[in-house]
Amino acid sequence: MAHWLLKSEPSSWSWDQQAKAGAKGTFWNGVRNHSAKLNLMAMKKGDKGFFYHSNEDKAVVGIVEIIKTYYPDHTDESGKFGMVDLKAVKALKKPVTLAEIKAEPRLKDMVLVNNSRLSVQPVSDEEWRVVLEMAGEKG
DNA sequence: GCCAACGTTGGC
DNA sequence: GCCAACGTTGGC
Predict the structure, then answer these.
(1) Domain residue extents for chain A
(2) Residues by CB within 7 Å of nucleic chain C, which ones?
(3) A3-134 CATH fold
(4) From start to end of A54-127, where are the E strands?
(5) How far: A34 CA to B4 C1' (Å)?
(6) Residue closest to C8, CA→C1'?
(7) How far is the CA of A118 from the C1' of C12 (A)?
(8) Which InterPro entries does the entry mention (predicted)?
(9) Model's pTM, two decimal places?
Protein backbone atom coordinates (compact mmCIF):
# COMPACT_ATOMS: atom_id res chain seq x y z
CA MET A 1 0.00 0.00 0.00
CA ALA A 2 1.26 3.43 -0.91
CA HIS A 3 1.50 6.28 1.53
CA TRP A 4 1.06 9.99 1.00
CA LEU A 5 1.32 13.35 2.64
CA LEU A 6 -1.31 16.01 2.08
CA LYS A 7 -0.70 19.58 3.06
CA SER A 8 -3.26 22.14 4.05
CA GLU A 9 -3.21 25.51 5.68
CA PRO A 10 -5.27 25.24 8.86
CA SER A 11 -6.92 28.56 8.02
CA SER A 12 -8.41 27.14 4.84
CA TRP A 13 -8.94 23.49 5.77
CA SER A 14 -7.84 22.08 9.11
CA TRP A 15 -7.57 18.66 10.66
CA ASP A 16 -10.47 19.54 12.97
CA GLN A 17 -12.70 20.10 9.98
CA GLN A 18 -11.51 16.87 8.40
CA ALA A 19 -12.15 14.97 11.62
CA LYS A 20 -15.65 16.41 11.91
CA ALA A 21 -16.45 15.15 8.43
CA GLY A 22 -16.23 11.69 9.97
CA ALA A 23 -16.37 8.34 8.18
CA LYS A 24 -18.09 9.64 5.09
CA GLY A 25 -15.14 11.94 4.52
CA THR A 26 -14.81 14.89 2.19
CA PHE A 27 -13.29 15.74 -1.15
CA TRP A 28 -9.77 17.13 -1.30
CA ASN A 29 -9.76 19.80 -3.97
CA GLY A 30 -7.80 22.90 -4.75
CA VAL A 31 -4.76 21.20 -6.24
CA ARG A 32 -3.37 23.40 -8.97
CA ASN A 33 -0.04 21.80 -9.59
CA HIS A 34 0.75 19.02 -12.00
CA SER A 35 3.14 17.13 -9.76
CA ALA A 36 0.54 17.10 -7.05
CA LYS A 37 -2.07 16.05 -9.58
CA LEU A 38 0.02 13.07 -10.66
CA ASN A 39 0.26 11.99 -7.06
CA LEU A 40 -3.48 12.33 -6.61
CA MET A 41 -4.02 10.18 -9.68
CA ALA A 42 -1.71 7.50 -8.30
CA MET A 43 -3.72 7.12 -5.10
CA LYS A 44 -5.75 4.00 -4.56
CA LYS A 45 -8.74 3.40 -2.36
CA GLY A 46 -7.51 2.35 1.05
CA ASP A 47 -4.16 4.16 0.78
CA LYS A 48 -3.23 6.09 3.88
CA GLY A 49 -1.77 9.55 4.12
CA PHE A 50 -0.46 12.03 6.63
CA PHE A 51 -2.41 15.23 7.12
CA TYR A 52 0.05 18.09 7.44
CA HIS A 53 -0.66 21.60 8.65
CA SER A 54 1.48 24.14 6.85
CA ASN A 55 2.30 27.67 7.95
CA GLU A 56 0.91 27.85 11.45
CA ASP A 57 1.56 24.40 12.89
CA LYS A 58 4.11 23.04 10.45
CA ALA A 59 3.38 19.58 11.75
CA VAL A 60 1.92 16.24 10.76
CA VAL A 61 -1.24 16.08 12.83
CA GLY A 62 -3.28 13.11 11.66
CA ILE A 63 -3.82 10.14 9.40
CA VAL A 64 -6.33 10.02 6.57
CA GLU A 65 -7.49 7.26 4.25
CA ILE A 66 -8.36 7.56 0.57
CA ILE A 67 -11.98 6.55 0.09
CA LYS A 68 -12.49 7.60 -3.52
CA THR A 69 -9.91 7.73 -6.27
CA TYR A 70 -9.22 10.62 -8.61
CA TYR A 71 -12.16 12.26 -10.33
CA PRO A 72 -12.62 15.65 -12.00
CA ASP A 73 -12.87 18.70 -9.79
CA HIS A 74 -16.00 20.41 -11.09
CA THR A 75 -14.96 23.62 -9.34
CA ASP A 76 -11.91 23.81 -11.60
CA GLU A 77 -13.02 25.70 -14.67
CA SER A 78 -9.95 24.76 -16.65
CA GLY A 79 -10.93 21.10 -16.35
CA LYS A 80 -7.31 20.17 -15.87
CA PHE A 81 -7.38 19.19 -12.27
CA GLY A 82 -9.25 16.74 -10.12
CA MET A 83 -9.51 15.53 -6.57
CA VAL A 84 -9.92 12.51 -4.35
CA ASP A 85 -12.13 11.85 -1.34
CA LEU A 86 -10.60 11.06 1.99
CA LYS A 87 -11.63 10.53 5.56
CA ALA A 88 -9.90 11.12 8.87
CA VAL A 89 -8.63 7.90 10.44
CA LYS A 90 -7.13 9.21 13.64
CA ALA A 91 -5.25 12.11 15.13
CA LEU A 92 -1.64 11.45 16.02
CA LYS A 93 -0.97 11.09 19.74
CA LYS A 94 1.73 13.66 19.32
CA PRO A 95 2.04 15.87 16.23
CA VAL A 96 5.37 15.52 14.46
CA THR A 97 6.73 18.94 13.61
CA LEU A 98 8.70 19.95 10.58
CA ALA A 99 11.66 20.77 12.83
CA GLU A 100 11.61 17.23 14.22
CA ILE A 101 11.41 15.75 10.75
CA LYS A 102 14.34 17.87 9.59
CA ALA A 103 16.34 16.76 12.60
CA GLU A 104 15.76 13.06 11.92
CA PRO A 105 18.49 11.62 9.67
CA ARG A 106 16.25 8.80 8.45
CA LEU A 107 13.86 11.41 7.04
CA LYS A 108 16.42 13.51 5.21
CA ASP A 109 15.09 12.38 1.82
CA MET A 110 11.46 13.14 2.56
CA VAL A 111 9.81 15.27 -0.10
CA LEU A 112 8.59 17.50 2.69
CA VAL A 113 12.20 18.39 3.46
CA ASN A 114 13.45 18.71 -0.11
CA ASN A 115 10.47 20.11 -1.95
CA SER A 116 8.38 21.68 0.73
CA ARG A 117 6.09 23.48 -1.66
CA LEU A 118 4.61 20.36 -3.19
CA SER A 119 1.15 19.99 -1.69
CA VAL A 120 0.60 16.27 -2.32
CA GLN A 121 3.63 14.10 -1.75
CA PRO A 122 4.53 10.41 -1.75
CA VAL A 123 5.91 8.98 1.50
CA SER A 124 8.07 5.86 1.50
CA ASP A 125 7.26 2.91 3.74
CA GLU A 126 10.32 3.64 5.83
CA GLU A 127 9.40 7.31 6.22
CA TRP A 128 5.85 6.37 7.13
CA ARG A 129 7.10 4.04 9.85
CA VAL A 130 9.59 6.53 11.25
CA VAL A 131 7.07 9.35 11.45
CA LEU A 132 4.55 7.10 13.19
CA GLU A 133 7.23 6.11 15.64
CA MET A 134 8.02 9.76 16.35
CA ALA A 135 4.31 10.40 16.88
CA GLY A 136 4.15 7.75 19.55
CA GLU A 137 2.03 5.51 17.34
CA LYS A 138 3.47 2.05 17.62
CA GLY A 139 2.53 -0.60 15.07
C1' DG B 1 10.90 25.68 -27.79
C1' DC B 2 13.62 28.66 -24.85
C1' DC B 3 13.91 31.71 -21.15
C1' DA B 4 12.79 35.88 -18.52
C1' DA B 5 9.22 37.74 -15.71
C1' DC B 6 5.75 37.14 -12.70
C1' DG B 7 2.75 34.99 -9.04
C1' DT B 8 2.26 31.87 -5.28
C1' DT B 9 3.65 29.09 -1.54
C1' DG B 10 5.46 28.36 2.77
C1' DG B 11 9.35 28.57 6.13
C1' DC B 12 11.44 31.81 8.94
C1' DG C 1 5.91 40.50 6.86
C1' DC C 2 9.85 39.10 4.21
C1' DC C 3 12.03 36.50 0.94
C1' DA C 4 13.65 32.25 -1.41
C1' DA C 5 12.18 28.59 -4.30
C1' DC C 6 9.40 26.82 -7.48
C1' DG C 7 5.81 26.65 -11.33
C1' DT C 8 3.57 28.88 -14.88
C1' DT C 9 3.00 32.16 -18.41
C1' DG C 10 3.98 34.64 -22.44
C1' DG C 11 7.08 36.99 -25.72
C1' DC C 12 10.31 36.04 -28.99
Answers:
(1) 3-134
(2) A 32-35, 115, 117-118
(3) ph1033 like fold (3.10.590)
(4) 59-72, 82-97, 120-123
(5) 22
(6) A33
(7) 31
(8) 5hmC_binding, EVE_domain, PUA-like_sf, THYN1-like_EVE
(9) 0.94
